[in-house]
Amino acid sequence: MPKLKFVSTWFVLLLVGLPWSVAQPPQCDPTKVIGPMRCAACHENEVRTWLQTPHAKTLEDLHRRPEANAIAAKMGLRSIKRGDVCLDCHYTSQTVSEKVQIIAGVSCESCHGAALDWVTLHNDYGGPTVLKNQETAAHKEQRRETSIAHGMRNPSNVYLIARSCLQCHSVPNEKLVNVGGHGAGTLKFEMVSWSQGINRHNFLRTGNTTNAENAPEALRVMFVAGLIADLEFSTRAVGKATERGTYGLTVAKRAADVAVRLKSIQDQIQDPHLEQALRSFSQAVLKTNNEAELNRIADEIQQAGTSFAQSADGNRLAVLDTLIPGKSEYK
Ligand code: HEC
Ligand code: HEC
Ligand code: HEC
Ligand code: HEC
Fold it and tell me: From the CA of 256, how far away is ligand 1's center (Å)?
């Protein structure tokens, strides 16, 4: 195997930095959030399942935890629910009468995208009189594409959802980590084990009767898509690094590690999109104050990951089964 440039370059993070970069853009636009209770009108089981997860419970739990208040104090925040720092990843906010308010923890739209522009499109089978079983395959495909074009992270392409997870679970906030003492990302994150336990809510495909498990073919695609999304967001996270410290070193090592894992997967599956993602990443210089360049590379990885999830045939990825966590490891 040729020596890969990215294995060594993360040590470049020894360079001196500029001041903190500015606040992150919001996860989902509060002016376009409609809130989980609107989804409940048609997705009652999904909402009931979600309410049992740490994502929902963080709304009531977070500000009661001493370690959370310690982080907020170091960040100079008067309160966890005020200011925008914790809002990015622990809460869903909505603009009500021109004021941004917290309405939930991590909720439906944190993962599926703020819904105002897509909610009436994603379930439209072709007009008010057309029933689900009358919809043509071509219309279904077009409906999904339209919903995605209007901001939906539709699980028909699992990369879109994996991006949501990693956007938060990579914790791309240098000050929060280096000053606040927050964890520098969920280093053990893995898409299958983290989405198929408490978080699973596949009622739709069974007509609302049971919470369906995925077939092995789907899990294989999800597994690889999760790692590519990890590579994309670890690369973006390095772009936020402005100084040598826990944050920069942790996210750079994460990016390098996930690239090595993907390289060994690529040796087994020979996928053209994964090849593209790795080729893009091999140009990345993991040093401080390199945001524009790293975002450009991450954009290329994003494209490759989206195409991978769209075209991959899980039947041809069986060689990966020994790498994919089993049920006993599901969160
Ligand atoms: C008026 C009823 C209604 C509301 C409100 C609604 N949905 Fe749906 N949703 C549906 C129906 C019906 C489907 C099934 C579409 C199909 O058959 O593919 C669906 C499908 C979905 C899917 C799967 C999409 C796919 O193509 O496989 C997701 C994800 C989803 N909804 C999320 C949400 C979220 C999140 C909300 C709230 C922001 C929401 N929905 C609000 C009725 C609704
Ligand atoms: C960029 C995303 C992001 C931001 C911003 C963020 N968090 Fe977190 N936080 C997370 C994630 C993801 C986890 C889950 C960590 C894990 O799985 O290890 C988490 C977990 C935590 C935990 C629990 C740690 C544990 O070990 O259980 C605390 C406490 C916490 N955050 C406090 C805060 C506070 C306070 C703020 C605001 C000052 C904040 N977080 C802002 C993403 C974020
Ligand atoms: C908007 C930010 C955000 C998104 C999107 C997000 N998470 Fe999380 N996740 C968090 C935070 C914050 C916590 C910690 C909550 C707490 O402990 O208070 C967490 C906790 C979890 C936990 C519980 C961890 C434990 O140790 O018990 C799992 C599992 C998880 N997330 C999986 C996922 C998966 C899978 C996705 C995508 C399908 C996802 N998350 C998307 C922010 C997010
Ligand atoms: C932590 C991220 C996350 C949150 C929060 C979340 N979802 Fe999902 N959702 C996913 C993922 C990932 C999938 C695909 C899961 C799979 O294939 O196993 C999915 C799939 C779906 C589906 C399609 C299920 C099927 O049978 O094919 C619907 C419908 C849905 N979600 C609705 C919702 C609603 C409504 C909420 C809020 C109550 C919600 N989701 C909250 C990540 C999330």
Answer: 37
Could you give the CA distance from residue 171 to residue 236 in angstroms, rounded to a whole number? 10
Average pLDDT over residues 61-83: 94
132 lines ligand 1 (CB under 6 A): yes
Q: How far apart are CA 142 and CA 136, in angstroms?
A: 10
Ligand 1 binding pocket includes 169 (Cβ within 6 Å): no
Distance CA 116, CA 313 (A): 33
* HSE of 236, CA atoms in CB hemisphere, 13 A: 21
* C-alpha dist (Å) from residue 232 to 98, 128, 243: 34, 40, 21
What is the average pLDDT value for the chain, to the nearest integer?
A: 92
Give distance in angstroms: CA of 293 to centre of ligand 4: 33
Query: Closest ligand 2 atom, CA of 173?
Result: 1
User: pLDDT digits over 254-295, tens only?
Assistant: 999 999 999 999 999 999 999 999 999 999 999 999 999 999
* Confidence class for position 152, pLDDT limits 50, 70, 90: very high
- Which atom of ligand 4 is found nearest the CA of 214? 18
Would the CA dihedral through 212, 213, 215, 217 be positive or negative? positive
